[in-house]
Amino acid sequence: MATSYDYAPLYRSSVGFDRIFNLLENAQRARSISDWPPYDIVKTGEDSYRISVAVAGFAQDDLDITFQSNLLIVTGKRQEAPQEGYLHRGIAGRPFEHRFELADHVRVTAADLNNGLLSIDLVREIPEALKPRKISIQAEPALQTSAAPAQIEAQKAA
How many other CB atoms sit within 10 Å of the CB of residue 53? Predict the structure, then answer.
């Protein structure tokens, strides 16, 4: 059972969250797409992640990884094998495409194909200008009581 959510009330009471609402709407639409081949997303450190896609039967030349503006696309298209000789064909080799929306400042660091698993390593690198920084609090210099207060020159009242 698919549940659809209406984000319109949230648009009325928030400013600047358009991208988050779009991500939520896109995630709802993407759920109807096949989850084949299966994949895992693992947090490997405080700011590092790994996506592992089960691509048994696909060669390195059959796979393509594209990263563009916070969108990681993994596609696979196997070269057609001759149909003769098969009594049973149970290893799926159909083309696939997986799309992963990545947060700001997340980039791909490596990709590896080993034992039928395509592993893609990601890391979040926040620029120095956007990292939290400690602000030192300056105490006001103490008023010096030994100095005479400044006087404004004026005529004496009669």
Answer: 21
**Winning range, highest mean pLDDT, from 13-17, 119-123, 141-145:** 119-123
Distance of CA 30 to CAs 38, 84, 97, 100, Å? 15, 36, 11, 10
- Contact between 124 and 48 (Cβ < 8 Å): yes
Pick from 38-52, 88-102, 130-144 the range whose average pLDDT is largest.
Answer: 38-52
d(CA 102, CA 119): 16
Ordered strands of the 96-101 beta sheet? 63-68, 71-76, 96-101
Residues contacting residue 89 through CB under 8 Å, at least 6 positions apart: none
Give CA 112 to chain center in angstroms. Answer: 20
* Greater pLDDT, 92 or 110: 110
Q: Is the pTM of this model over 0.70?
A: no
